[in-house]
Amino acid sequence: MSLNQLIQNCKKNDAQAQSELYQLFSGKLFSICLKYSRNYAEAEDNLQDAFVTIFNKISQFNNKGSFEGWLKRITINTALQCYRNKGVFEIVNEEKIEDITLEIEDDELSIDYLLKIIQELPDRYRLVFNLYALDGYSHKEIASMLKISTGTSKSNLARARQILKDKIETYRASLNAQTL
User: Fold this and answer.
1) Where are the domains of the chain?
2) What ranges make up the beta strands (E) of 1-160?
3) DSSP H helices in 58-149
4) Is residue 16 over pLDDT 60?
5) In the chain, N or C: fewer CB atoms in 10 Å?
6) 129: how many CB neighbours lie within 10 A of its CB?
7) What does pTM read for this prediction?
């Protein structure tokens, strides 16, 4: 069955089509949920909530643009919504912070380790870092999505990078100490 036919059947609340759509996209969408969640269980909850929204709003998809992009936007917004409701983005001092560069050598750090340290970031920093560095949103777009100022977005990104840089340097130092 083609993707277009699958979408049409989902618009008719066809349970078999919904199951197929879930099987087709749940892996990719779960990886997005993991990026925006504190842990695996929260990511599972966000994926569940995202699919509920997807099936409730699928009639609004009008075949303009990428269906996968539409799914991704819903998934990211679902994950962000719980943080918006918790007041995670209270106003912080937005003094100018120097731009931090992260240097990551592929053979040194595992994806699992990187995901772990990103998930350990405080919510406001993790969400801005993921939106900017991993999903390519601009600070203006992030500010709109999270209902914060662009300055807060930039400040949170800089703080996230600094925390990640410190954790990576500590990790590298521990590796170097083990090899001595």
Assistant:
1) 3-85, 111-179
2) none
3) 67-85, 111-119, 123-129, 139-146
4) yes
5) C
6) 23
7) 0.73
Domain 3-85: give its CATH code. 1.10.1740.10
**Per-residue tokens: 150:** 């662009």
* pLDDT tier at 180, thresholds 50, 70, 90: low
Which contacts (CB < 8 Å, 24+ apart) does range 95-98 have?
A: 95/155, 97/154, 97/155, 97/158, 97/159, 97/162, 98/158
Residue 36 Cα distances to 16, 58, 80, 86, 151, angstroms = 29, 23, 7, 15, 21
**DSSP one-letter code for 1:** -
What are the tokens at 108? Answer: 């040194």
Is residue 83 a contact partner of residue 142, using CB atoms and an 8 Å limit? no
